[in-house]
Amino acid sequence: MNTDHGAAGARADTASAGATSADTEAPLTRRAGTMPVAKTPRPTSGRGSRNLQRVAVVIPAKDESERIAATVRSARAIPHVDLVLVVDDGSEDDTQHVARDAGAVVVRHSHNRGKAAAMETGAAVVAMRDADGRPPRLLLFLDGDLGDTAVNTAPLVAPVREGVADMSIALLPPQKGAGGRGIVVGTARRAIQHLTGWSPSQPLSGMRCLTREAFEAATPLAHGWGVETGMTIDLLRQGYVAVEVPCDLRHRPSSNDLKGQLHRAAQYRDVVLAVNARRLRGTVDAVRGIGKPRGPVHR
């Protein structure tokens, strides 16, 4: 998935929430006044019960046959992951077959329905596979073009699994060949700050880990490329906790050619639509005197 990160590599409001390598999963030490506490109730305390908290990787993908196998194999190496699910969103290539051969469970849309619909399909399939008597799996959403670096999203799991956050968002390093002037990123960042009080470094980052409860609180998801911006606004307004975590990831950035410009135009359109819908919803709720947020908590 192409994402315009604008001034990539920014580190403002970054949580020190784990190692930046998948080789170790450092436990989180919660110190008074330095770490927030997630809104989502955690599984019963204790090492044994915490080990029941499994993770499902959900990968929305369209025409990613060249990279999806490496992404799937790398994602399977993330600690606590016991399910890798690829949602083939109407690909015209062999994405579904390549992903299945690499070890993923694959579901397919017969035609392209957009990223938000693919995420909702994936989450629904994971819910059907969650076993009774065990905590629902955490949802780790990854882009299909991460390749061998997908395993480096492992640090996203710890803040959510340990109860520090309801949602963790990956901060990517600068991407070679990335185009754009940060217009879409800036628009999304300013909107999130205006509506929630938080100014995320990379508001369009699609690599996110969140609890089942948080995901359902964000549904229905905003359409298309507005899904990340809408999700962040919706969750923070309801008092859920978000953190940003540096992850050493490499993907295929959009360039400055015509295809890249059209992609960023579509991003801008969907982000504006998502923001305007939430502004209207907030105005209506204020008039009715309902839906007042508890106040966002974030790092």
From TrEMBL:
The keyword Transferase applies. Residues 57-171 form the Glycosyltransferase 2-like domain. It comes from the Bacteria. Its cofactor is Mg(2+); Mn(2+). InterPro entries: Glyco_trans_2-like, Glycosyltransferase_2, Nucleotide-diphossugar_trans. Its EC number is 2.4.1.266. One of its GO terms (molecular function) is glycosyltransferase activity. This is Glucosyl-3-phosphoglycerate synthase.
